[in-house]
Amino acid sequence: MQYRIDFNCDLGEGCGDDAAILPYVSSANIACGGHAGDESTMRATLRLCREHGVAAGAHPGYDDPEHFGRRTLSLDRDEIGLLMLGQLARLGAVAAGEGVRLTHVKPHGALYNLAADDRVVAEAIVGAVAAFDPQLIVYGLAQSQLTDAAERAGLRAAHEVFAERGYAGNGRLLPRGRPGAVIESLAQAIAQVRRLVLDGEVDTAEGPLRLRADTLCLHGDRADAPAFARAVREALLADGVRIQALA
């Protein structure tokens, strides 16, 4: 059996070594100026994607750089749609100028986690993506409201799993600050990646859980992200897994 996975990373956030990470991943989620990033960082990251043959996607989040987009803001459906469209347009314009085609969209932080359980938020995000470019793939937490909303709308959904985040028994990520929410051990993270990609399962405090895995995320704001990305890639290749962008 041939295993294949997209390996993505959140980049252009001004807090990691993007150039050192990009050779090891197949897709990049680029901050669009909401939680982080500006025209300069967008342009630099897009150029790196082009140089390394990495698929470039949008990583829109709450317009709240002070809290890095990890605080939920009270926005209604229309406001979320406008937030998404504004950031997609911003990155899209820079990408067009660089001759790079955007392939996907992955919400960031608190917006991503809220969309996993809130159907209204999920549909607002999907509606904005469809209005901007229905060919874009929507990245969402595996088996969540966001992936369901994308599929109902006729958009392509990518069910996302995480290399170094802990899971609750319902398939949601453990909140940051909770014990086990962030996996610091490389060996433990690689073991989790292998379970997810090869077996379609993840261990939780409540026991093993089946999860669909189309794309695997590593957070680029880790201090050890380049070494982590290289080690994860090497482990997957050693297991005969093909690493390839979804687009």
TrEMBL record:
<dbReference type="InterPro" id="IPR005501">
    <property type="entry name" value="LamB/YcsF/PxpA-like"/>
</dbReference>
<dbReference type="Pfam" id="PF03746">
    <property type="entry name" value="LamB_YcsF"/>
</dbReference>
<dbReference type="GO" id="GO:0005975">
    <property type="term" value="P:carbohydrate metabolic process"/>
</dbReference>
<dbReference type="InterPro" id="IPR011330">
    <property type="entry name" value="Glyco_hydro/deAcase_b/a-brl"/>
</dbReference>
<keyword id="KW-0378">Hydrolase</keyword>
<dbReference type="GO" id="GO:0017168">
    <property type="term" value="F:5-oxoprolinase (ATP-hydrolyzing) activity"/>
</dbReference>
<protein>
    <submittedName>
        <fullName>5-oxoprolinase subunit PxpA</fullName>
        <ecNumber>3.5.2.9</ecNumber>
    </submittedName>
</protein>
